[in-house]
Amino acid sequence: MEVGLVGLLRVSWIAGTLPILIASLPCSGLTSFHRALSGFAKRGKTLQSSSEKFTVPQKFFSHFYVVAMVWTTFLLVTTWIYAYRMAPIVSKPFHYYTITSHLTGGSHIFSWHKTYSSPMEYRYGIWQSVFLLLLMEIHVSRRLYETIQVFDYSPSARMHIFGYLTGLFFYIAAPLSLCCNCAPEVYKFMLNGVAQFIVEGKNYVSDIEFDWWVFVISLLKLRWHQWIGAAIFLWGWIHQLRCHAILGSLRDHKEQTSEYVIPHGDWFQIVSSPHYLAEIVIYAGLVVASRGADLTIWLLFGFVVANLVFAAAETQRWYHQKFKKYPRNRNAIIPFFY
Ligand SMILES: NC(=O)c1ccc[n+]([C@@H]2O[C@H](COP(=O)([O-])OP(=O)(O)OC[C@H]3O[C@@H](n4cnc5c(N)ncnc54)[C@H](OP(=O)(O)O)[C@@H]3O)[C@@H](O)[C@H]2O)c1
């Protein structure tokens, strides 16, 4: 099952990225393929079509983050409990660990994961997943707040149903990719816990001890690359927050709800889609925090880059067509390069 989940996620990311890469090739034979794919990816200002066929309102973006919040919170809480009970990296009295392991039927935990060289490495791997999910939770909570409170989606703004379904899939697969190496074991552990609870009821719950300090201190014991990754994540996160605030303020007057203007400030001074650039920085932070050693997270990152560079190219074209005096020195998404 474990290889199945990891394999499935990897295939999905490759299947999502390849068509974008193919459509981006500068080959005249691929023009209609490129047009079809960009039709699926367009939304809001870049999807100005009279036909509403196969589209949904762009404010449905909030659905992505509701799904992401619920799913990431579930994965975070269950993985954190599993890490605390079954993979401690700070010393706890030996008998306590053995008892809890026995109670949950978890002696199999010592047959640690094949990809880790030692039991300690395996435990660090699980705590690393908790850390990555925590960063994801911080990201999707802000995005949910912004889609509801900051962005003033125009009533006429739409997105293609294909883009909508892709977004929903993304926010299920992305958090899962951050913990896919231990997800099957966490799942078995939780099932075991539920079964024990059904059999033993209140006695089972009263046997469980929680030391909140151990919960937190274990995260602080993580290694330097996790903290460098978190710093990169935070850098992208803060710039995305600022750029979204700028976008959200462009239509401060209610009568302007379908008007578009040239944004200025923060990373908008150097690129046209700084919020996409910031998203790439955020996911680069996750790659670094995972030590760059997990192919599934690299493939997730590849999809995010391909998808956002593709969308940024459409946005750049749209700005150049819409505004005659658009700043010529502004690149699409990668400063001084593209
Ligand atoms: N991880 C991923 O793969 C992924 C994929 C997609 C999006 N995202 C993230 O989701 C966030 C939002 O993406 P998005 O594509 O919805 O952004 P967007 O198209 O730029 O739209 C954001 C909001 O700003 C408004 N807006 C944009 N440009 C404007 C202008 N020139 N004048 C006035 N209003 C303007 C839009 O209005 P309209 O609705 O009228 O256009 C919309 O309300 C981004 O940070 C992005 O990184 C991530």
UniProtKB/TrEMBL annotation:
<feature type="transmembrane region" description="Helical">
    <location>
        <begin position="60"/>
        <end position="82"/>
    </location>
</feature>
<feature type="transmembrane region" description="Helical">
    <location>
        <begin position="124"/>
        <end position="141"/>
    </location>
</feature>
<feature type="domain" description="3-oxo-5-alpha-steroid 4-dehydrogenase C-terminal">
    <location>
        <begin position="211"/>
        <end position="338"/>
    </location>
</feature>
<dbReference type="GO" id="GO:0005783">
    <property type="term" value="C:endoplasmic reticulum"/>
</dbReference>
<keyword id="KW-1133">Transmembrane helix</keyword>
<keyword id="KW-0472">Membrane</keyword>
<feature type="transmembrane region" description="Helical">
    <location>
        <begin position="295"/>
        <end position="313"/>
    </location>
</feature>
<dbReference type="GO" id="GO:0016095">
    <property type="term" value="P:polyprenol catabolic process"/>
</dbReference>
<comment type="pathway">
    <text>Protein modification; protein glycosylation.</text>
</comment>
<feature type="transmembrane region" description="Helical">
    <location>
        <begin position="161"/>
        <end position="183"/>
    </location>
</feature>
<dbReference type="Pfam" id="PF02544">
    <property type="entry name" value="Steroid_dh"/>
</dbReference>
<dbReference type="GO" id="GO:0006488">
    <property type="term" value="P:dolichol-linked oligosaccharide biosynthetic process"/>
</dbReference>
<dbReference type="GO" id="GO:0003865">
    <property type="term" value="F:3-oxo-5-alpha-steroid 4-dehydrogenase activity"/>
</dbReference>
<feature type="transmembrane region" description="Helical">
    <location>
        <begin position="94"/>
        <end position="112"/>
    </location>
</feature>
<protein>
    <submittedName>
        <fullName>Polyprenol reductase 2</fullName>
    </submittedName>
</protein>
<dbReference type="InterPro" id="IPR039698">
    <property type="entry name" value="Dfg10/SRD5A3"/>
</dbReference>
<keyword id="KW-0812">Transmembrane</keyword>
<dbReference type="InterPro" id="IPR001104">
    <property type="entry name" value="3-oxo-5_a-steroid_4-DH_C"/>
</dbReference>
<feature type="transmembrane region" description="Helical">
    <location>
        <begin position="12"/>
        <end position="33"/>
    </location>
</feature>
